[in-house]
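Sat 14:20. Reprocessing the chain from the morning session after the first attempt stalled halfway. Input below, unchanged.
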Amino acid sequence: MLGENSSTAFNSQKIITNLKTNWLNIIIIISIIVIIVVIIKIITKKIIRALDKKISPEKVEIKKRSYTFSSVISNLLIALIILAGILIIADQCGINMIPVITGAGIASIIIGLGAQSLIKDLINGAFILFEQWYQINDVISVGDISGVVEKFNLRTTAIRDLNGAIHYIPNSEIKILSNMTQDWSRALLTISVSYKEDTDRVISELKNILNDFTNDKKYKNLFLEKPEILGDDGIDELGNYAIKFKIACKVKPSNQWLVERQLRKKIKDRFDELGIEIPYPTNNVYLKK
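Finished this time. C-alpha cells:
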C-alpha cells in the first residue's frame, strides 16, 4: 500500500511536466513567501524599536519578555508560511502530500529525519517560554557556557559570551540553567585590609563610601535595597594575610557588574586617601646561618 501511495505521490514524469507548465506560478509563490518573511522581520524590528521607546528602563523585565515573545511569534509565523509555501509548491508540481503525511511509514520517515530531537527541542522550548526561565537580554549559564541571551525560539537558544562568540544550544540540551538577571541581581564584593588596621574605622569608612555611592545621582536608581556589610557589620574571614569584609547590594537586573566595578574603584581611591592598607600576598624568607 505504501509503495502504491509513494508512486502516486511522486510520479517523476508528471512532476517534470507540471514544472514546465507551472514554473511561473512557482516563482511567484517563492517570491511571495520571501516578501512576507522580509515584511515579518521588518515589522518585528519596528515593534522592538517601539518597545524600546515606550517601555521605560525601570520596566526591564516587561521589556525583555516583550522581546522574547515578539521573537518567538515572528519565528513561528515564518515557519508556518514556509511550510504552507512548500505544500502549495508541491501541489503545483503535482505531488500529492496526503499519502506521504498519512501513510503507514510516516513514523519511520520522522525517525529517519531526526524529528524526534526536533520535537524534544520544541517541547522544552515551549516550557522555557511559558515558565519564563529566561528572556532575551538575560545573562544565563548553561553548562560551561555563560553569556547574554541574544536569540530565542522554540528550537534553539543563542547565547553570546563575553568574548563575542555566539553559542547555539538546542533547547532539549538545556537541563540545568542559572539566570543571573531574573527579577533582581546582587552585587557582592570582598574587601581585604591589613591586620594592622582598626576594624571599626574600616567599617565606618565603608559605610560612608556606600552611603555616598547610593546617593550619587548617576547610580542611586540602580539600587533596590540599601547595601550592607554582611554579618551585621562583622568580619567575613580572617585570611592568611588580610582581614576580609563582604558587602552585598541588591540591584536592578544586569547592573551588579557595574556596581561592583564602580564600588571597588571608589573604595580603593578612598582607602588610598586615608592610608588604609589593602594588602597583597607576600612571602618572608629567613636565611639560616
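The first strand starts at residue 139 and ends at 142.
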